Amino acid sequence: MMGLPDSLRKLVARKFTQARSSQDLVFSDTYLTLLQHPSTPAVQLRYCPALGKKPTSNSANPTNNKAKKAFDPFENPSPELLIAPVPATNPTHNIVLNKYPVIFNHFILATKENKPQTNLLEEDDLYLTHSCLQAWKQDAESHHSLFAFFNSGEHSGASQPHRHLQFLPIEDMKGGGEDWRVLCETMTSPAHHSLPLLHNPSLSFVHFATPVGSSSSAAEIHGKYILLMQAALASISEGGSLDSLDAISISQDGRTTFSYNLAMTTEVMAILPRRTEASSIPDVEDSAIAINGTILAGTMMVKAEEDWDSLRKQPEHVQKILADITYAKTSNAGRG
């Protein structure tokens, strides 16, 4: 599919081990627990004390970086982190390691050309993502799967303006917790009478998923993405309807008109429109919990011990956090 010299899983694992040993990447340990409450899905909570030390760009919105050009880690990736350009012939993307992972074998698919994170994803972005997911699962020595996610827009949790999608091995995310299930793969109930849209009725916020076939073409995969984008925007727009998606304008001059997280596994593609990037825990001073696309896997992370302690004692606060960052289904005029 991509013309790699070895299996993707082996290439990533080998490079990760080498880069960690040589300190070309900085791995941060996390504490992990599973939050369970009747009002919310089971959510992984990670606590990473070192997270606040990670360097970040000024903004994922390039219009805010007029005074000084921010460092672009994907413009010329270091050989120590570069896994492979893909596809092998006329490559358009690079597969690189995340320099600051908290989960083993976290890697990234970034465009070679600096394309905006806020623009619509293109066919090759999604087809190569699908190819990575399939390659990982089809490895003869592995029955494991990947979770891919994409953050777009100022409220999505994006940290880099250069277009990139991220990948986390699901087995490395589990950390021995067998009761946890990837959230987007629980979206299995029909969300519309005729469109191939799915959702999880127990979730109180707007979200959609759609099945992804193992043999889907680039055009088919991109079409599924456009459907999710239209459905999401219709559901958060005044007067929007899933029965008239052709009237929905999801981009202006190539740039998407709303913030969202996208997730993809070998089974489904899912979308979560975003209202804000962060939330806080009641009665915890200076609480600030930023959420990105990993929420579609059913996982979130905190960097303050007070937040960690509070959420473990009162897991019902997860419902408040999710309500803050998303759009409530009750305000949705679009379900069919």
Automatic annotation (TrEMBL):
Residues 5-171 form the Ap4A phosphorylase 1/2 N-terminal domain. It comes from Knufia fluminis. InterPro entries: Ap4A_phos1/2, Ap4A_phos1/2-like, Ap4A_phos1/2_N, ATP_adenylylTrfase_C, HIT-like_sf. This is Bifunctional AP-4-A phosphorylase/ADP sulfurylase. Transmembrane segments: none annotated. Keywords: Nucleotidyltransferase, Transferase. Its EC number is 2.7.7.53. GO terms for molecular function: ATP binding; ATP:ADP adenylyltransferase activity.
